[in-house]
Amino acid sequence: MLKRKIEQRLIDWKNDPEHKPLIIKGCRQCGKTYSVLDFAKKNYAHVVYLNFFENPDYASVFSGSLEPDNIVMMLSALLGKNAIFETGKTVLILDEIQDCPEARTALKFFRIDGRYDVIATGSLLGVKGYGKEPKSVPVGSETVIDMYPLDFEEFLWANGIEPPLTSILENCLSEEKPVPDALHHRMRQLLLQYAVVGGMPDAVNAFINTHRLDRVLQIQRDIVRSYKDDMIKYADKKDKSCITECFESIPRQLAKENKKFQYSLVKKGATSSKYAGSLQWIEEAGIITRCYNLSITELPLDGNSIENMFKVYMRDIGLFVSMLEDGTQYDILQGNLYGYKGAIFENLIADIFSKMGRKLYYFHKDSGLEVDFVIRYHGECTLVEVKASDGNTKSTKTILRHPEKYHVSHAIKLGDYNIGRNDQILTLPLYMAFLLKAL
To answer: Where would I find the AAA domain in this sequence (predicted)?
Structure first.
């Protein structure tokens, strides 16, 4: 069983005396159902489980009155002994709630009633073309938590790297001293494995149990294929081909020197007016994340972002690598990445940052200045360069030389080396990106 951070968030939610019905939102197959059911079985005397995707007939329970007493009566009739409702001891789980919009409306009434806890999961909530919108979204009556595939730290847990070892890394970071050689070597190895495997639970389990990368790749490509099936099945008819074309263009977008998303690379003659909604569809499905260019390197980052200038990364690095040609996994593990080197390691750091809950930003000027990422770190605007090889940091050094113009005095260079410092630039191994938590 994989240890997930969502477990603690669910416990914190239950322990809050004022907790509302909870929605766990995330891409398909990221582990929502498993985590919620495991939590429910450990923390409640009775679990009533409905999956609207597998059993569309369950939606009929919510077609009439949405008063909890009526719903409880209907469920008791439908499920018999599998529907025991006891005040304070029962949790109702509504899996794939986007397939029953009336059930989401009902959350407001369960919130007012207060006798039973409700947890819902949703894979395509709010995605254009998927089902019907609820007549009334229960604003103020629900809590929404985003869930992602396993992040790098959860992958470390799955591979036996426990908190005491993480504490050593944190101490090395805070004191800016090199990581001991044995741990440094192991972490470098695990990072490359994470780049190949990613965080989809089925892929991680296959890797942990068999270490067969052909099996991992098959699982990943099956997931990517299921995402494409969703695009064809659920998107509006006029958008189906556009969404698929946008999705399939991502490797090409990231292979460029300037990785800004260009609609012309999706299809010859493509324009933002035709394809912007398609890209939004993929983003809302939790498959990709955007990284926005900044007009200036200054806090607040969101306030200085440029809405129509962005890069696009896959939310999960393993799925991105699976979209590349056969043999890429082997090349990564051997360190032979050739032209795709920058794309893979940038998407790797985008994966780590976005799964930490960070919004992504970068800085690019037509003059040639470009910095891979810009983050808030220890209350300051901080540049982050990602180097798959030694590489130069010309843009970063230029920006740091002009604090009066760019308002930045600190930078981090992530690469295949140990901890060190060169004046204003802190050098860190790539695997330490997940420790850059201090906002």
So the answer is: 19-156
